[in-house]
Structure formats: structure tokens, C-alpha cells
Amino acid sequence: MKDIRILVLDDEKVFRKEIKEFLDGEGFTALTAERPSEAFEILQENQIDIMILDLRLPEMDGLQVLEKVKNEYPDIEVIMITGHGDMDAVINAMRLGAVEFFPKPFRLLDMRAAIQRTKRYISLHEQLKEISQTYSLVSKDLIESIGSEIIGNSFGIRQVVDLMGKVAKTDNTSVLITGESGTGKELVARGIHYLSSRKKSYFYAVNCSAIPDSLFESEFFGHKKGAFTGANEDKAGWFEVAHGGTLFLDEVVEMQPAMQSKLLRVLEERKIRRIGSSVDIPIDVRIIAATNQDVNKLIEEGKFRSDLYYRLNSFQIHIPPLRERKEDIPLLLDYYLKHISKKLGKKITSVDPMIEKAMLNYSFPGNVREMRNMIERAIILSDSGRLTMKNFVGLIAPQVESNASGVIGEDIFDLELIEKIVIMKALEKTGYKKSEAAQLLNITRQALDRRIEKYDINL
């Protein structure tokens, strides 16, 4: 588990110094604050796990601070302390979410024990949260081993998850996953593996387009020592490595015809022979293949064997592109904002609503992968806790049309969006002359400049 960071908020200097020295000596990272305003500044800049909070404070009392902390930083656990406490204060503190309550004076060893209890609670909470976050929003059966979510609430993605669950119940059925680049074909393959009875065995992913023809047999089937120049020791091939588990063949159509023939023979006979060996090795592997190309067209052109296609395509799952399931975009945006900002250690407190609208109007040729990379880049570029359109390179703010009378459409209720549209119309009408636009809007030139910066309006 990560190091525990503790914030001590108490207006008594001697107590703050004493408990900080004790906590530092116990291996914790301790920060201190005298006033609530100072504490909230620390919270904005630091990841805090536990807060030790005095009941009597300047600016606001401890219960008010507790309520504000639990509202704004719900993952922080709070230990209350006071030299003037009563039973009502204890009850109110516990109702507001405090995990412990200590009357002053108390023994530092008792405080250490309370922190250790809270530390164990935080550890369990993190584990539960991590497991929960790895579940799909549309299927709670996908477990953490998948590594990421299959996120969406659209009919298309629900159908994908339903098919995953059904084919996972079979043990040997080959699966062909189709879909454009970036839709998450390997994620679906991993999901099938970890939902199946093979989940305790190995899942091995192979990019077929990256394997030179000269190494194909050695990589897939393995070789004996001395079988060829450079074979200095025995080597197991990918079929042996994945024995009992799943072998994922990404971009399987990139294989050369000769290699396709050898793969077909293995799938039919369920045994392999290492290069340089005369011994057949039985294999027990589920094959999941994937491609972003039109397989039927490749078969017609003679670039892919039809018999191998039918062997691989016992069960097919097609993942729709993101542009065909736009209702999933808000869910994906929310998830990746939280997931990536946490990974990068950057706190994002607000997001310009124009970003989601722009994404809904964007075609995402790179699908979910492009969206994830776009959000990660925006978070990296952000110099504050607010993401705006200027952080999203290549994303264009939508132009919302007004009706014939010049009034914003009846279905538009976003005040910030309406204000931005009106400002843009005023600028357009005045030939982008700020002073004239400000007069038209009945605001000062300085107020217009502030709004242009706020809404990231390009002139």
C-alpha cells in the first residue's frame, strides 16, 4: 500500500508540533495547518489520506470543516479531537463521517493505534474500489484481470458484453473479433478469457503483423537446441506457453498464405511439433483472433484462406465504432478524466461543458483509443484544475444554430453555452471588433475580454 499522508488541523502550535514529530517518527508523512483556510489550501495541492481535526477552530468549527471535507474529499478519513467535547459533538461527528473521536489529552500511542486501524480500512477500501472500477458499467461480471473497463450503455456495447458472457461458457470455441482499430478488440478477448473456465491459465496476445515469416514457426511452435543457427537452447512456442489458456491472434489476416496453412493444421490436429524435434506435443488452447479488415474481401482476393476463416470464425463478435454509439461518449469521458488524472497525479476540478458537446460532434476515426489519448494529452497540457477546449488539440467547438428570429433554440438550456453563442454572434456581426461587440452586448470591453478567455473563443 502507498505511504499514508496525514494532515493535522489544530490551532495549538505545541500540539501540532508534538503530533507531527510523533507521526514522522512512525513513518507517516505529516502536514500541519493552524486554520481551516490553510488546511483547504493544503488539500488542494496534496493527496491526503487521513485528517486529524480539532473541534474548536478559528474561522469555522471542526464539525463544519468535517462536513466540507467529506463533501469535497470523500476518500479522506477524519479523526476528531477536542478538549471541550461532549456526547452531542461525538454523535454529530460520527454522523458526518468521522472514523474516530479522541478527547484531549490522549496518549499518542492510542492515536497511532487509531491511525493503524484507519490505515487498514483505507487499504481494504482501495482494494474494493479498484475491483469495482474494473467492472464494466454494463456487466458486473467482468473482473479486474481484464485491466480496463468495457464502458458503455449503448445497445451495441451491451450486445458485445452479452455475447462475451455466452461464448465464455464454452471451453474450446474459437472466436473472431472484428472492429475498427481502437475499438478494444484485445480487451474483449481478455474479457472472454477471464470470464471462462480458463481464467487461471495464461492469456497470451500475439500481433501477427509483427512476426517475420522466418520466425513464424519458431515463435508459434518453438524449437530444439541446435535446430538452426542461433538456437542455443530449447524454446517453447506460443502454443505451449498458452497451454490450458487462451492465445489471442491480433491482425490474423496479416499472415502469409504459407503460415496460414500451418496454423490451420495445428487448429485441426490440436498438436504442435517444435522445430528440430520429432515429438508431437498436444495442446489445449482456445484461439481468439481479431482483425480490423474486411475478411470476406481478402478471401475473394485470395489473400486469406477461407478454410482458416471458417475454423477461426466459429463465433463472431463485432465491436461497433464509437461514432455509432455516441451515447457512450459521456460515460467514457467521465471515466477517463477520473482514471487518467489520478494516474498522472493532476486534480481536475471542472470541465468546460463544450468539450462533451464537441466530442459528440466528432467522428473519432481512432475510436476509444483516440479518445483516451486525446483526454490524456489534454490533462497533461492543463495548467489548472479546469479543462477547456484549448487543451483538446484538434477538437472543434460545435457551432449551434439559432432560429430565424435570432433566438437560441428551445432545447438549449446551458447558460454558459448560450452566453458563448451570443458573444460569438456579436463578434461576428461587428466584424470581430471587440469594442463594438461589447457595446452590442451592453458590457465593458474588459468584461468581454474575460469572457472570450473563459470560453476560449478564437478570434
TrEMBL record:
<dbReference type="InterPro" id="IPR058031">
    <property type="entry name" value="AAA_lid_NorR"/>
</dbReference>
<dbReference type="Pfam" id="PF02954">
    <property type="entry name" value="HTH_8"/>
</dbReference>
<feature type="domain" description="Response regulatory">
    <location>
        <begin position="5"/>
        <end position="119"/>
    </location>
</feature>
<dbReference type="InterPro" id="IPR003593">
    <property type="entry name" value="AAA+_ATPase"/>
</dbReference>
<dbReference type="GO" id="GO:0043565">
    <property type="term" value="F:sequence-specific DNA binding"/>
</dbReference>
<protein>
    <submittedName>
        <fullName>Sigma-54-dependent Fis family transcriptional regulator</fullName>
    </submittedName>
</protein>
<keyword id="KW-0597">Phosphoprotein</keyword>
<dbReference type="InterPro" id="IPR025662">
    <property type="entry name" value="Sigma_54_int_dom_ATP-bd_1"/>
</dbReference>
<dbReference type="InterPro" id="IPR002078">
    <property type="entry name" value="Sigma_54_int"/>
</dbReference>
<keyword id="KW-0804">Transcription</keyword>
<feature type="domain" description="Sigma-54 factor interaction">
    <location>
        <begin position="150"/>
        <end position="380"/>
    </location>
</feature>
<dbReference type="Pfam" id="PF25601">
    <property type="entry name" value="AAA_lid_14"/>
</dbReference>
<keyword id="KW-0805">Transcription regulation</keyword>
<dbReference type="GO" id="GO:0005524">
    <property type="term" value="F:ATP binding"/>
</dbReference>
<dbReference type="GO" id="GO:0000160">
    <property type="term" value="P:phosphorelay signal transduction system"/>
</dbReference>
<dbReference type="InterPro" id="IPR002197">
    <property type="entry name" value="HTH_Fis"/>
</dbReference>
<dbReference type="Pfam" id="PF00158">
    <property type="entry name" value="Sigma54_activat"/>
</dbReference>
<dbReference type="InterPro" id="IPR025943">
    <property type="entry name" value="Sigma_54_int_dom_ATP-bd_2"/>
</dbReference>
<feature type="modified residue" description="4-aspartylphosphate">
    <location>
        <position position="54"/>
    </location>
</feature>
<dbReference type="InterPro" id="IPR001789">
    <property type="entry name" value="Sig_transdc_resp-reg_receiver"/>
</dbReference>
<dbReference type="InterPro" id="IPR027417">
    <property type="entry name" value="P-loop_NTPase"/>
</dbReference>
<keyword id="KW-0067">ATP-binding</keyword>
<keyword id="KW-0547">Nucleotide-binding</keyword>
<dbReference type="GO" id="GO:0006355">
    <property type="term" value="P:regulation of DNA-templated transcription"/>
</dbReference>
<dbReference type="InterPro" id="IPR011006">
    <property type="entry name" value="CheY-like_superfamily"/>
</dbReference>
<dbReference type="Pfam" id="PF00072">
    <property type="entry name" value="Response_reg"/>
</dbReference>
<dbReference type="InterPro" id="IPR009057">
    <property type="entry name" value="Homeodomain-like_sf"/>
</dbReference>
